User: Fold this.
Amino acid sequence: MATPTKTIRAIDEHTITGATIEQMSTTSNPRMKHVMEALVRHLHDFAREVDLTPKEWIDGIAFLTAVGQKCTPNRQEFILLSDTLGLSSLVNSLHDKRGLEDSTKSSLLGPFYRQKSPVLKAGESISTTAHKGQDVTLYGRVLDSKGAPVENASVEIWQPDENGDYDLQREADLVDLRGTFHTDADGRYCARSVAPTGYMIPMDGPVGDMIRAQGRHGYRPAHIHFLVGKPGYREVVTALYLGNDVHIDSDTVFGVTESLVTAVKQHDPESPIPNLPAIQFNFTLAAAGEAGMGRVGADPAQIVKK
Ligand code: BEZ
Ligand code: FE
Assistant:
């Protein structure tokens, strides 16, 4: 057994941080070393700042254990925790800053994205069941950072219905209100859908308990998700938000950014589908680069395997 060093014998609430970092200094991966050192410093500073008690420490461990136990191939409670603590939105902002060129801002992928959605033709509807919501056209262009059209970009769309429910919340195998489109030579995309409604994030787990304990409402404002990409460009994971939603300024997961706020225009002479209310939005893709690639968010099935 190794003889305890002087540092270990002198451990107190201040020297513990240096001792931990010193013991981890043999980490061979430089990025892991940097991230773990910073994590330990901030974690220890946090415990000192709040004067963490043994009961609070064990309560925190019980909470994180419950978060892990709630995770399945269809449910990622850890991502939900990250979302509701503002960490996902912060990671998205850092990701956006790493782009070589300006692009449409990222917003949360969320737990309802599924990798495969029906491939549809321009102007087709993503709705496969009857809906009482208002029919709308979603249209616009996909452009590069210089404003030139991006042809054959894929535009994946998924959204909740007029009750705030996604297809897989209504029925496990239902495919409704999701589809993949491709832009034409002018970078244009066009889909038909129904106007979405805001909804509460999944509140039946430990994250919901936390949200209630904090007196938060748990709602997301009405939005439509988009994943736009083409090889050679940085993929954009984002969402468009309806500015007239009561929760537009208090999104529980901090996904709303001014540039993503939009509205349903009741009469839009520019819309490719006449006499239908429309939401118009142009997406900008930045050129791909070595730094800052990778998806913002994940399908839960990629984290907990089926
Ligand atoms: C969503 O928009 O689908 C979503 C994002 C984060 C947490 C819950 C839902
Ligand atoms: Fe959503």
Remarks:
- The longest strand covers residues 135-144.
